[in-house]
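Design request, tokens follow.
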């Protein structure tokens, strides 16, 4: 009787080839696809897995859990890796890995597997979660183990074994897509001196093709969580989908960066995340209004550390849990709304307001109604400068 393995399956080149490779090792392959909002690819990918030879392809609808339990906590933390990347791919991995462990136990599988490379970050994110959630369970990493050293060789292997794939040797991009963002790497993007070609654009319009008329959008928040757009409430998944469509139309949310991978190398990535750029800017605008100076300053360090924890695959760890508690304590007063202008690839804050605002016009104004006692300034400055007097 063949042993069973649950494979994290995306429908892409690596995991499609991995099905056949694991079968040739004598394993019954059960594919697991986590639906984190990658769209219609789920249906075609499931059919592809069964055609290749998987005995089953389990599709878990993880969209709501992904947004509420992974995306929104990271948004509230203000976490952006290297100050840029919204961690879309990194956030999905611990969720999918945990769901895979549940599937493996339900199917009485002997091991789990993923299609990550030995130089990427996702291998760490998957395997750390496996070790935390299923200590002792065997883990396969075919791409680290097989004889196929290049993507071109994988394509040749796929053709030899009649594995249906979408990649060609002319277009070797590796694309990961979920509701919170899209990542594109590989192919001619591996030369950081070259600009991305038009075929790397997926959901975001170029600035040149974006509408010539600006569009304004107002986002409402409750305890740091976005709940409505232009006064209309949406479910978490609907809200992000709407902002993705709106932002993408105006060329918002595309980023090209050279990234420091966990394993110690640099990689060039292109990301698309329209809703994310809008929500991060709106959330920060409200925090500027309602948080005191020292909390905002300290939270900046927490945001940076939080982004590293997510990027490094340490979601299910004590430190992550502790930082969540701190972030939650900062978000109780973060409610209100922010107005943003979307135009030709840029998001601009046009206004913000909150019932918890610490901004007091009678203290800030230089006009009529000013109540600030300027006579106090001299004493304040004297005390402030005292340690530095010679």
């Amino acid at each position: 009787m063949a042993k069973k393995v649950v494979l994290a399956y995306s429908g892409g080149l690596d995991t499609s080839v991995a099905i056949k490779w694991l079968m040739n090792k004598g394993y019954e392959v059960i594919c697991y696809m986590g639906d984190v909002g990658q769209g219609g690819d789920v249906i075609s990918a499931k059919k592809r897995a069964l055609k290749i030879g998987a005995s089953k392809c389990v599709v878990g609808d993880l969209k709501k859990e992904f947004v509420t339990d992974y995306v929104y906590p990271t948004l509230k933390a203000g976490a952006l890796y290297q100050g840029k990347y919204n961690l879309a791919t990194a956030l999905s991995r611990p969720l999918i890995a945990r769901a895979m462990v549940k599937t493996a136990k339900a199917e009485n599988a002997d091991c789990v597997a993923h299609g990550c490379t030995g130089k990427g970050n996702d291998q760490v994110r998957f395997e750390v979660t496996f070790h935390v959630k299923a200590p002792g369970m065997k883990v396969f990493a075919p791409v680290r183990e097989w004889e196929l050293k290049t993507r071109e060789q994988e394509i040749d292997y796929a053709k030899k074994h009649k594995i249906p794939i979408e990649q060609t040797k002319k277009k070797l991009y590796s694309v990961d897509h979920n509701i919170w963002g899209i990542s594109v790497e590989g192919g001619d993007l591996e030369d950081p001196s070259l600009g991305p070609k038009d075929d790397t654009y997926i959901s975001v319009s170029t600035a040149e093709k974006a509408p010539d008329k600006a569009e304004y959008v107002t986002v409402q928040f409750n305890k740091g969580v976005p709940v409505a757009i232009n006064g209309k409430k949406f479910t978490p998944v609907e809200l992000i989908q709407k902002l993705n469509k709106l932002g993408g139309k105006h060329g918002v949310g595309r980023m090209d960066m050279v990234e420091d991978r966990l394993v110690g190398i640099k990689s060039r990535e292109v990301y698309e995340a329209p809703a994310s750029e809008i929500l991060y800017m709106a959330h920060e605008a409200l925090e500027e209004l309602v948080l005191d100076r020292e909390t905002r300053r300290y939270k900046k360090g927490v945001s940076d550390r939080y982004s590293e924890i997510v990027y490094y695959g340490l979601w299910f760890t004590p430190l992550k849990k502790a930082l969540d508690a701190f972030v939650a304590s900062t978000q109780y007063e973060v409610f209100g709304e922010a107005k943003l202008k979307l135009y030709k690839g840029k998001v601009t804050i046009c206004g913000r307001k909150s019932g918890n605002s610490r901004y007091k016009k009678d203290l800030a104004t230089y006009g009529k109604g000013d109540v600030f006692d300027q006579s106090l300034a001299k004493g304040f400055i004297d005390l402030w400068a005292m340690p530095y007097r010679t």
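Comment from the thread starter after seeing the answer: thanks! The domain at 176-353 is CATH 3.90.1260.10 (Argininosuccinate synthetase, chain A, domain 2).
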